[in-house]
Amino acid sequence: MCAFQKFLVPVDGSAAADRAAAKAAEFAGMTGAHIDLIYIAELRNGPMPQHIIRREDMPADVIEALKKTGDDILERVYQKLPSEIQNRTVLHTEAGDPKEIILEMAQIFKTDLIVMGTRGLNPEQAIMIGSVSRYLIECAVCPVMIVH
């Protein structure tokens, strides 16, 4: 039996995230692994780190609207998965800092492998402060697979 039985796949609507979800589904098909697909609504009003807004400072209706967008993105990705993989996939929507939430959820879900795309929808942030994928490679307690 494969050691990787729980995959965490962050998605954000980008093509790279879609490719990561497809790769995770491919591996799950070979190993029988369970997939947690997660969308994290970033709470920010600009690309710089100082533009991040604390969850408690964001109006609840705005957070819910952002999470609704995430639900739509998750559903689109989920529908592309083979039905046998859909049966082993759970969808999660959160709001906050993607780096921190992915790390937290990986621990909560007892994730064996994080599978994610090389670059999401915020290339400005990747240039200025480092990408989410780079942060996770350095900080995650489980392996991280980056899909091009």
Automatic annotation (TrEMBL):
Residue stretches making up the UspA domain: 4-148
InterPro entries: Rossmann-like_a/b/a_fold, Universal_stress_UspA, UspA
Pfam families associated with the record: Usp (PF00582)
The family this protein is said to belong to: Belongs to the universal stress protein A family.
Protein's recorded name: Nucleotide-binding universal stress UspA family protein
Organism (species): Pectinatus haikarae
Organism ancestry: Bacteria, Bacillati, Bacillota, Negativicutes, Selenomonadales
